[in-house]
Amino acid sequence: MASEAMTARGFATSVGRWIDTYAPQLDEAPAPRLRINPDHWAGGIGDALRTGDWIAYFSHAVEDEDWRDVLALWWPRLLPGIAAGSTHAVIRTGHAVRALRSHDTPARRAELARGLAYWAAGWRTAPGSGPRTGTATPAAALDLVPRLDGGPGSMRTYFARLAEDPRWWTAAGSLRTATEPQDAARLLDELVHSAVGFYAANGRGIMLVHAATAPNAIARVLPVLPERLWAPSVNAAWTASAAVVANYAPAVPRPLTPDPAPHGPNAAAEVFARTVEHGDEHVIKLADTAWDVHQATGDPAALAAVMTALAAVPGKD
């Protein structure tokens, strides 16, 4: 994901050095055990023990069919389980799709297959993902989200706590509903913008960056999906972003005093270069998303969010 972001942003020459540092953290991909039956796939969904089976299934699927057709078929099946891997799976899928939209290669199809496979194997729903009747903007809706302030526990534990909190159900239903596909795309862009700004004001660590990077991953996939899937995609993006905020935002904002962001026409590239030097993959992905927001809106809070992350997250040697 981070290497794709570096390549997309013109820092391909830094990828090799970054991979040398990151590679020791990786495990071998699990081997397949049983074949995924495409007519009875639901039995393997959300089963981490079948990760290798899902990798084999999607690897063959993207070799035999147009990857866009595979994505259109599986996107609505996977979307309710967007919390898979604390949203890492959908983020990985989004990076793979951006790469494929730029240039279709076997390696990029393989990366899409892995993103979809880890999503299928880790499929997990978050509470509050049903229909909404709210009218709030993304910024106002994020402000309504209760803060659990992290603590020990798994995503299953966090979601159980959310399900018991009436404030969560109020917040989860508060975001306005998109009225048509283009409105859904605009609403998704607003959510990404607001989540980046939220990190600038509240960021203290790694996991909160997913409140912005997960919906932005969906925004990158939206153009290759049938328009009937756009509104459900925004609903899922909102639920994921709000759940990340609930689980990882500090109960009381504790702002840092990061270095000021640079200004000028190359400011986003300068900030991104600092994240490449810093080396943390989450910070690099946040900078990638913030670049999108800054380019679209000119909002200085987008680059300030990255400076906050640089101050909050330890760098990689």
Secondary-structure map with pairings?
Blueprint: H1 2-8, H2 15-22, H3 51-64, H4 67-78, H5 88-102, H6 106-122, H7 138-144, H8 155-163, H9 166-172, H10 181-202, H11 210-221, H12 230-248, H13 267-278, H14 281-297, H15 300-312
Helix pairs in contact: 3-6, 4-6, 5-6, 5-11, 7-9, 10-11, 10-12, 10-14, 10-15, 11-12, 11-14, 13-14, 13-15, 14-15
Largest sheet report: none
Query: In terms of per-residue confidence, which ranges show pLDDT below 50 for 5 or more consecutive residues?
Result: none
The dominant shape is globular
Give the helices and strands as they follow along the chain: HHHHHHHHHHHHHHH
State the helix count.
15
Q: What is the arithmetic mean of pLDDT?
A: 94
Q: How many beta-strand elements?
A: 0
Q: What gap, in angstroms, lies between the N and C termini?
A: 19 Å
Strand content: under 5%
The gyration radius over C-alpha positions equals: 19 Å
Measured as a percent range, the helix fraction is: 55-70%
Structural class: mainly alpha
GO molecular function: oxidoreductase activity
Protein name: Questin oxidase family protein
Keywords: Oxidoreductase
InterPro entries: Questin_oxidase-like
Description:
60% of the residues lie in helices and 0% in strands. Helix 3 packs antiparallel against helix 6 and helix 11 packs across helix 14. It is mostly helical and 317 residues long. It is globular, with a radius of gyration of 19 Å. The model has no long low-confidence stretch (mean pLDDT 94). Among the domains are: 92 residues; 111 residues, no CATH class. The relative contact order is 0.13. The protein contains 15 helices and no strands. This is Questin oxidase family protein. Keywords: Oxidoreductase. One of its GO terms (molecular function) is oxidoreductase activity. InterPro entries: Questin_oxidase-like. Pfam families: Questin_oxidase (PF14027).
